[in-house]
From TrEMBL:
Name of the protein in question: Transcriptional regulator
Organism name: Oxalicibacterium solurbis
Annotated GO MF terms: DNA binding
InterPro entries: Cro/C1-type_HTH (IPR001387), Lambda_DNA-bd_dom_sf (IPR010982), MLTR_LBD (IPR041413)
Domain HTH cro/C1-type: 8-80
SUPFAM superfamilies: lambda repressor-like DNA-binding domains (SSF47413)
């Protein structure tokens, strides 16, 4: 990943015309585009650090530096998004969750099985009526205190989750491992870091599972529930990443 990030930055640096970003150039140049020293100065980093980054050495690029690199190199929105993905960082200029939720409501509302959409923090940004019926005590009511319910907070902080979710210990363990795999390095950034700390303080089980450092993919599979009105229910869960909203996932529960 480091080599891909370095190659991407180097290629774009070499395609920048110094005069296009306000640099005065005199004489001929042996190499095309912007020099490393010039890009480093414009981004407020050392030439040595930038050299190491372009060479693919294991150096860490902060969100602030990536933001500056994208601006100086005049990356398009798609190029900027790719830069942050290569660095495994969250772009502070990503569209707000509220904007993504508008489309999410239309998507989940058109599905006739329990469906909901999660953002990067695993807040449920939209859900349909079948999901509200299934997740009683959670998605069947929205309050001012909890405008966007969170899957992890429900699982570990709501007593009703242990009754509703069949084989809660196994599901809870896998959920934490899936969340860690999904978030990667972003768990050290806000708002994820604050939410994780809140869960660790509020749930001994979450704290123990988080410290175990387990990582698994969100593969879906059989999900079983003990519904207070409908009894035992079985579903096959499938999850899709939403291409137009990075970090958003559509979850559907198909009758098994």
């Amino acid at each position: 990943m480091h080599s891909k990030l370095g190659s991407f930055i180097r290629t774009h640096r070499e395609h920048i015309k110094p005069q296009d970003i306000g640099l005065h150039v005199t004489g001929s140049r042996r190499t095309p585009g912007l020099r490393r020293e010039e890009l480093a100065q414009l981004c407020g980093v050392s030439p040595t650090w930038l050299t190491w980054l372009e060479q693919g050495r294991p150096v860490s690029a902060s969100v602030k530096v990536l933001d500056k690199l994208a601006d100086v190199m005049r990356l398009t929105p798609a190029e900027r998004a790719y830069l942050f993905r290569l660095a495994d960082r969250l772009d502070p200029r990503e569209p707000a969750t509220e904007r993504a939720a508008i489309d999410a409501n239309a998507i989940v509302g058109a599905i006739d099985v329990p469906a909901y959409m999660l953002d990067r923090q695993w807040d449920v940004v939209a859900w349909n009526k079948p999901a509200a019926t299934l997740f009683t005590g959670w998605l069947d009511k929205r309050t001012k205190q909890v405008p966007q319910p969170n899957l992890l907070q429900f699982t570990f902080l709501s007593p009703g989750a242990r009754t509703l979710i069949t084989n809660w210990p196994e599901r809870a363990q896998r959920l934490v491992a899936e969340f860690r795999a999904d978030c990667g390095k972003a768990t050290d950034e806000e708002p994820l870091a604050g939410m994780i700390e809140q869960l660790r303080q509020g749930s001994e089980e979450f704290d123990r599972l988080w410290n175990s450092q387990q990582v698994v993919g969100r593969d879906g599979g059989l999900r079983q529930f003990r519904h207070p009105k409908k009894g035992e229910l079985r579903y096959e869960q499938v999850t899709f990443n939403v291409a137009s909203s990075r970090g958003h996932k559509l979850v559907m529960l198909l009758p098994a």
